[in-house]
Every structure is written in structure tokens, then in C-alpha cells.
């Protein structure tokens, strides 16, 4: 399931046609390989604000080389701008003063991060100025090119030291297909749990349940969580057992919508592991039809699988206190749940409901347990291989990177949420969509 158009643009004739006809020219995206340094190059740090003390220390902990001075011939792999010191709209010119001189000195697949203060925690001119950062970063994401990404991280006061896993994710190739996102750290946390984390294998000793793990995105989530040290319990429907056991030897076969599925999952996790640390609700289906032609059973089935089952399973695991302290609950939404999509009223509703699930739970969870979701855009899997050719082509190109994402891009985002160092990351929905134009 490769991107044939992208391969064509790399050929001799393809290069000529792309140039002369002004066709999209997707840059090959670097992906993370296990054991490699997070950043192959230097990160330039700028701005003035609350992060002045902590930023270089955090980057050092991640073995990321950084500097605060840009010499004329220097090349940068990443830029981090501490915008927490911007308190009025006229201060925003500091963004231009920092970025313009260095944007032509970036290597391929560069990473840009702007760090601000959550506007909802501020008043007056400072609130106005901090809100502006969103428009700035989303626009820069659309013009940076070279397979680059740009994000805005709003960090609540007092949580400056909680950025370790977030910096590691957004500065590395792990976030290859995530761009134009706004993330909040420390805004919805009633308590925190400190844990020693090995940045190379952050999930050592953790148990993760992944539903829909037999293939596609779920299979890749299982692999990435295993790479990071977790023991993965895979779950899928009984006909998928042969594929499922190739992914992991710890597995459950069940239809998640079955009446007894939550109890079956809970008893497996309790008996075998005494609990669970990470729950990834990945299993999902589409049964597309325009609403005028829709049948109740198909509409209901999509809702049952994509949202009601994750709700019931989560409720059961929490009720039985099986989700351990500093646990992670992770949903898989979709861009269709944000922007809507033709023929997808049921799917769009179910995936918007995943966002509602995050919003409602994030306020209530305690003991360092967090809930977040990913919202993938066009990811190349068997699900999207079934999409008609023309729609698929448009779907793949309609984003700032002019290409579809890979299951690993979704999996890496989930691994960032799953890290024990991500306790401050709660209540977020991050799109893995190459900054798709839909619903942006
Ligand atoms: P996929 O169809 O390749 O895999 C889904 C897996 O879920 C399958 O192994 C399937 O057997 C399992 N599953 C389905 N119903 C189940 C049930 N009732 N009980 C247990 N297991 C069940 O799909 P994918 O592309 O890997 O998608 C994974 C998730 O990502 C889904 O939630 C999907 O909605 C979401 N998503 C995918 C894309 C994309 O572009 N592929 C985009 C946005 C969101």
C-alpha cells in the first residue's frame, strides 16, 4: 500500500512534470528508527519568558544539541521559540524577528515549536497576544515546506518541567505527519504522579491493551508500544486470531460490542497482570452511506463499535480500579469527527463522540490517569485502500505535506501520550493529518 504518486515524483520524468506543471511535490518524510538520536542536528532556541530556565536543561536530558545563537552559516534541524514572555499584541513582532532570518537555514524535515501560556488562564492584552500564536503557527505550518512541521504548545504556569516527553515527540521524526497542532500541557491536571522514565524505553514494565490490534493502525500501535518496552495485550474479533497472535502472544479474541466484552477484558487483565497501564481504543469501522439511504442497523453498528464499546470498557476498567496510577486512556477519533465527511454521518458522529469522551473524562480522572485522543487524517491502510481511486488521490494530497500518513505516525503519537512522562498531557485531541485542509 505505497503512495505511487510520490514514487513517480522521484523518477526522472516525474521530476520534469512536477516542475513544469506545478504539481504537488511531496517531500519524503523521515521516520524515527529505534535507537537513533531524537534529533539529528541542532535546535535553535529563542524568545524570552518562563521557559528560559528549563528549556536547555530539558533538551540536554533528551540528548538534543541546542544553541541560542544563530551564526550566518549555521543549519538547524529545529527551532523552539519561548513565547510566554509575549504580553501584548505589539510584542508579536518578536516572532518575525526570530523566525525570518533563520527559516532559510533549515535542514529537511525541520521541526518548529512555539511555546505559550494557555490564553484561557490569562486576562486582557496578554490573553489576546497568546491567542494570536495559534494563527501564527498554523500559517507557518502551511508555508514551511521541506516536510517540516510546526506546533504550538501551551504550557500552564508551574508545568514548565513537564515538557520532556512533548519536546521529545515534537522535535523528533516521531511526529513526522503531525503539524499545525495546538497542544495543552498542565491545564487539566488535578494531581500528578512522579515516575522515573528511561527516555529510550519509557514504557518498560507497563501493560497496554490495544483493541483492533490484528492489522492496520492497531498492529502498528502494538509494535511501537512494544518497542518502547510495554507488554501489549492485543484484542480483535475471533476471525482475526491468526493475524492477532503474530502481533502479540498476549491476546483476547472478542467483539468489543458483545454484552460480556467489558467483563471478559477486565478479568483477563486482572488475572494475568493485576491491572492495566495503557488502554488504546483503536478498533473502529466505517459503513458509509448518505443519511437519506441509511439503515438503522448499519448506523447503530458504527456507533456501537466506535464509541459505545470504548465507553463501556473504560467504565468497567475504572469501576474495578484496574487502571493503575499514572494510567493512560487513549481514543482514536478521526478528521471526519472534526470536519464531517460526505456519507459519514454515523462515522462522523461516533468520532466526534470520541472527542466528547476525552472532554468529559479529562476533568474527572485522578491519580495521574490521563485521557487523550488522536484524530488521524488520511492514513494508508486497508480501510483507506477501499476508498475509490479519485477520492483517495484527493484525500492524500489535500494537506500541507501532499501525502498520506502511515500507521506508524498514529502509533508514535499514541506512544507520546502513553509515556509516564506525559502526565501533564491530558484532555488533548491531536490530529495526525499532515495539516489537512479539511476542518483546519
Ligand atoms: P482497519 O479496518 O485496518 O482495522 C480495524 C481493526 O479493528 C481490524 O483488525 C478489525 O478486525 C478490528 N475491529 C473492527 N470491529 C471490531 C469489533 N467489533 N471488535 C473488535 N475488533 C474490531 O482500520 P484502520 O485503518 O487500522 O483504523 C484503525 C482506527 O483508526 C479506527 O478506529 C479508524 O476509525 C481510525 N481511523 C483510521 C483512518 C485511516 O485513514 N485509516 C483515519 C481516521 C481514523
UniProtKB/TrEMBL annotation:
Family: Belongs to the short-chain dehydrogenases/reductases (SDR) family.
InterPro entries (UniProt xref): KR_dom (IPR057326), NAD(P)-bd_dom_sf (IPR036291), Sc_DH/Rdtase_CS (IPR020904), SDR_fam (IPR002347)
All residue ranges annotated as the Ketoreductase domain in the record: 206-377
Protein name: 3-oxoacyl-[acyl-carrier protein] reductase
GO terms for MF: oxidoreductase activity, acting on the CH-OH group of donors, NAD or NADP as acceptor
Signal peptide segment: none
